[in-house]
What we know:
single chain; alpha+beta; 10 strands; globular; binds coenzyme A
Amino acid sequence: MLSDVTEAPSTRVLRPEFPVRTDRLQIRPLTLDDVDAMHAYRSIPEVCRYVPFEPMTKDDIAARIGRQWASRELTDDGQVFILGVEVTESQTLVGDVMLAWSSREHATAEIGWTQHPEHGGHGYSTEAARAMLRLAFDGIGLHRVMARLDERNDASARLCERLGMRQEARLVENEWFKGEWTNELDFAILDREWRALAGAV
Length: 201
Ligand SMILES: CC(C)(COP(=O)(O)OP(=O)(O)OC[C@H]1O[C@@H](n2cnc3c(N)ncnc32)[C@H](O)[C@@H]1OP(=O)(O)O)[C@@H](O)C(=O)NCCC(=O)NCCS
């Protein structure tokens, strides 16, 4: 599945073979053909309530797919994957997942997810996020992956728990976010914890 992975974690790069397949999903780079499907959920105010972006127009989405969301490889920290989550059987784009390589030195990354509410409740985002953890740990050889959540985002907290992530921190009113002070929950999982879980499945 992976190529161009060298021995030392500090020198690894990630060039997955796309699509990355899971039981029910294909996780793949976004294209301009995905603009309408992405707009269907990234334009919904409720979907954007706890995420750093505002409801998007089709032009916003097309511009990002043409630039920062076009990445097919992570060669260094500071780089980010935003990948489409497609249900293989129906060939429907139901959401997207993020993997951001935070630090080469500390071998850390951050993950995130956004999904159309019409396709919620099936475990698709959990399945896609597990694939992102696999890319982070097996692909780049990272040590720790975290997720940052608004404390009120219960669905996301449950998702983190399903992934086996531990809540490590509750930051009180650490951000002025969309017009109010908000609390942040930090969840994380280490490579050895991921491997122990994978071995248990
Ligand atoms: C966060 C978000 C992706 C969660 O969506 P979700 O549908 O709850 O997540 P999943 O796709 O993983 O589905 C899990 C749900 O399906 C259920 N489920 C059904 N079949 C399942 C399966 N095979 N595997 C796992 N879960 C399954 C789970 O029980 C869970 O429901 P529950 O939380 O009520 O117990 C969604 O609410 C969202 O996009 N929110 C807006 C964007 C956002 O806030 N992003 C996070 C920023 S930190």
